[in-house]
Amino acid sequence: MNTSSAVSSTIRLLLLIFCMRTFVRAFDSYVEVVTEGIALGQTVVDAYDFYHKPANAYIATQVSPSLFFQDFLAILLNQPKETIARDLSSLL
Fold first, then answer.
1. How far apart are CA 75 and CA 1, in angstroms?
2. Residue-level pLDDT at 42
3. Would you give the DSSP letter of residue 1?
4. How far apart are CA 59 and CA 61, in angstroms?
5. What is the mean pLDDT of each run of 10 residues along the chain (92 residues)?
6. d(Cα 45, Cα 20) in Å, to the nearest integer?
7. Has this prediction a pTM greater than 0.70?
8. Alpha helix locations (H) across 1-92?
C-alpha cells in the first residue's frame, strides 16, 4: 500500500467513525479517567448526569457487527458496500 492510498484509507476510516451512528446505539456523556486512588486508570461515565458537566464522549452501548464490518471493509478494501455485504453473507 503506497502512502497516498494509506492516507486516503485513514481519512475514510475517520469518516466512518463520524458516521457510525448508523450501526451503533450510543449516548453522549461526561467521562473522566481516575488518576489516583483505588480506581486508578478506570473510566467513569456519568450516564445519569450526576455531575452536570458537559458531555465529552460518545458512549457505545450496542453495535451491529455486520453493518460495522460492511462499512469498515468497504472503506479498507475500496470496494462497493454491496459487494462486501454479498461476500460477508456467503461466509456466514
1. 14
2. 95
3. -
4. 6
5. 63 68 84 95 94 92 84 85 90 74
6. 20
7. no
8. 3-18, 65-77, 81-91
**Residue position matching grid coordinates 453522549:** 28
Q: What is the DSSP-derived secondary structure letter of residue 54?
A: P
The answer to whether residues 62 and 25 touch, using CB atoms and an 8 Å cutoff, is yes
Q: Which three cell numbers stand for residue 73?
A: 471493509
The SS3 of residue 6 is helix
Query: How does 30-40 read in b/e, with b if 16+ C-beta sit within 10 Å?
Result: bbeeeeeeeee
8 Å CB contact between 75 and 13: yes
3-state SS, 9-30, equals HHHHHHHHHHCHHHCEEEEEEE
Tell the burial category of 75 from Cβ atoms under 10 Å away from its Cβ (0-12, 13-18, 19+). Answer: buried
Closest CA to 81 of 37, 32, 16, 33: 16
